[in-house]
Specification:
Strands 2-1-3-12-4-13 form a 6-stranded mixed beta sheet, sandwiched between helices. It has a 5-stranded mixed beta sheet with strand order 8-7-9-6-10. It has a two-stranded antiparallel sheet with strand order 5-11. The chain contains 10 helices and 13 strands. With 286 residues, it is of the alpha/beta class.
Amino acid sequence: MKRWIATLVVLLAGIPLAHASECERPLRLRYSMVPEGDVKVDLARFRPLLDRLQATLGIPVEVVTPASYGAVIESLLAGEVDLARLGPSSYLSVRKIDPTITPFATFSQQAGAFQQAGPFYQSLLIVRASGPMKQVANLRGKSLALVDPDSTSGSKVPRHYFTQFVGASLEDWFGRVSYAGSHTGAAAAVVDGRATAAFVSSFQLSRMVRAGTLNEQDIRILWHSLPMPLDPFVYRAKLCTDITDTIRAVFLGSRASAAPQVLEDMNAIRFLPIQDSDYRVLDTMR
């Protein structure tokens, strides 16, 4: 009897350990983001918030520099990245494979040169203001720069909504379609004359103007999409609850606790809580 009781005690004692093992408690947290602009600069600007997260968690928070949108998606799905900033379409791609990836925050933007205030943005079809292209019909057979196959405003939205507008695929409407790798690269291709037109984010275009790398007067808008929700920050749901609760608290706390310099560099007003349902408006693109 004593031996049986001792065995039962051991088994019962093991139950909490089994439950605890179902969540992950990494020795370090890894953060990455889709390369919408100069990713190294963007990661450096975001570092103060990651430092605050690191101090609060008591573990290192490392930055993983991505090669592409797809690289961030693959790293998140493989568990090589724990926390990430995705584009809306990138999030939909991730969610389709792993529905446990959890969106928890986005941000509300201040108004910019091409951006209205609020937690949304648009896909813009841009050309050089000094050029002869003054309406969409003029672009038939011309060259187009997209951002990345997984970019929402720089590929997915144009391929779904703009093609409905003109009644033809991008490849049929334009003479040549290429990918620039980032919104900055796509806009630069238009300004430099390497592409006649490009689809870019209103948020990123406004950011370029604010940074002094683009003159607002050099750009003409020929088409824009309906407003879409801004980028989601996501984490892997397999992380232990105390870790994900801390991540939410650091991002969604008061302005002071959320590293105000980060918000200023993003031209953002504040971080906002989000959930999966906020992005269902884009499901029609799948």
